[in-house]
Inverse folding.
C-alpha cells in the first residue's frame, strides 16, 4: 500500500490524482499513524512553511511511526517540495529540527539587488541527473514544474541525485538509501511527472 501522508500541508489530492492516472493500485491518503505503519511506500508531499510542517507531523502523532518505517523498516519514501525539505536537518526558514534523514538543510535563494532572478522560483526547468537513481530515466532530459523559495543543500554531494539551474545550480532531487526527495512538483509536471511517480511506484 502506498500512503500519501496528509498532514494538512496541501497538494495531497493532486498527488493522489496523478497516481490514479498512472494506474497505481492500493493508494491511500491518510494521517492515521496505523495506516503509515502498514505502508509499503510513503509519499510526503507539502506546500508551505518548514516549522508548520514539522509541527503538524508532531501534532498528528506521525513522527515516531515515520522514523520507524523509514529508518528501521527501510520503507521507500518520496518527499515532494516542502516534503523534500523536511527530510533534512533544518531550514533557514524556521527553528524546528527536520526529520534528519538526509544530512543538510534548506536554504533560501539569495540574489543581488537589481537581479532579474525573482523569489520564489516559479516555472518549468530542465533537470540534470548527477547520480544514477531509479526515479529518473536517463535516456531523456526531464523537465519539471517548480514553485519554491528554498532549496536543499545536502552535506554529502553523493546525496545529490539531480540539479537544476535558477541563477545558481541547486539540488532539485536527493537520495540516500530508501529516502528520496524532489523539490519540483511531479504531480504538476505532466508526462515527466507521471514518469517519475511511475518509477517510484515500481522501484
Amino acid at each position: 500500500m502506498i500512503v500519501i501522508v496528509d498532514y494538512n500541508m496541501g497538494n495531497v489530492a493532486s498527488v493522489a490524482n496523478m497516481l490514479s492516472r498512472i494506474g497505481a493500485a492500493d493508494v491511500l491518503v491518510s494521517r492515521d499513524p496505523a495506516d503509515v505503519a502498514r505502508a509499503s511506500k510513503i509519499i510526503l508531499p507539502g506546500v508551505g512553511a518548514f516549522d508548520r510542517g514539522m509541527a503538524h507531523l508532531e501534532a498528528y502523532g506521525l513522527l515516531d511511526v515515520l522514523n520507524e518505517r523509514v529508518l528501521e523498516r527501510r520503507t521507500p519514501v518520496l518527499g515532494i517540495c516542502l516534503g523534500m525539505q523536511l527530510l533534512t536537518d533544518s531550514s533557514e526558514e524556521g527553528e524546528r529540527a527536520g526529520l534528519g534523514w538526509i544530512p543538510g538543510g534548506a536554504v533560501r535563494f539569495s540574489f543581488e539587488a537589481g537581479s532579474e532572478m525573482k523569489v520564489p522560483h516559479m516555472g518549468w526547468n530542465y533537470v540534470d541527473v548527477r547520480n544514477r537513481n531509479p526515479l529518473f530515466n536517463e535516456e531523456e532530459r526531464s523537465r519539471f514544474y517548480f514553485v519554491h523559495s528554498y532549496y536543499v543543500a545536502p552535506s554529502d554531494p553523493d546525496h545529490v541525485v539531480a540539479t537544476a539551474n535558477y541563477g545558481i545550480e541547486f539540488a532539485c532531487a536527493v537520495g540516500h538509501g530508501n529516502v528520496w526527495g524532489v523539490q519540483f512538483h511531479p504531480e504538476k509536471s505532466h508526462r515527466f511527472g507521471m514518469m517519475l511517480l511511475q518509477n517510484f511506484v515500481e522501484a
Summary: The chain has a mean pLDDT of 95. The chain is about 25% helix and 30% strand. Helices lie at 12-21, 33-36, 50-59, 63-72, 82-86, 190-202. The CA atoms of residues 86 and 119 lie 20 Å apart.
